[in-house]
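Schema walk-through. Below, the input block comes first and the output block second. Nothing else is stored per chain. Lengths vary across the set, and this one has 245 residues.
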Amino acid sequence: MSADPADDTRTRILRAALDLFAEHGYQRTSLRQIGERLRLTKAAILYHFPAKEHLLAALVEPLLADLEALLDAAQTQPTEEARWTVLEGWVDTMLAHRRPLGMLFHDIALVGRNDTYHRLMGIAMRANDVIAGPGAGRRERVRAVQAVATCSDPIVFFTDVPDEVLRADMLDGVRRLLSTPAPDAATPSAGARGGRRRPGRPRALGGEQVEAARRMHAAGTHSVDAIAATLGVSRATVYRHLDEK
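--- output ---
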């Protein structure tokens, strides 16, 4: 059998590194362990990646490149269109890179040792500027930062939630964040006035979640009970939205 091309060897090294980083963490994974998994010598790995830090940077590179391409595309669009291009594209990009993102989250301090961290921060700042819009004040800029977190953080905390459902939840959350005015600080909340949300009030579904429920039902992959359990609502809520079509 002929030897693998160089590019295939490099890809195999990256896949093995990602698996081992996920299993043991970056710090506790050695180049020797990666080599043993692939039956390669340490020298063979160093030929492609002169240091372990280069493996981490290479694993994160596709995520960063996709985010930069997304922001470049949004630059030519009007403000509101650019805002939602970035938000929806950010969610889709994060979902497409779920495993490297989880690794990056757990080893973020290590990423800070090299240029990858500064590049990531630059991408985040660009996204914040697009979402906040030109001439944004403090409140709009705070919400822009919150919106980026809404489109990123749930992916590393809800690893067992299917992409389609998590996407719907995340976009529903960011739409609510950006469309609901912040309460006036001088206005007491319902809790401060002594009012409480009535127990048993059914949770509502956002537009993205409704579409996800309808797609799952139409595909025949989920029963109504399964859809309700996945989205955290009652069967009656699911039926109500399915009947609205």
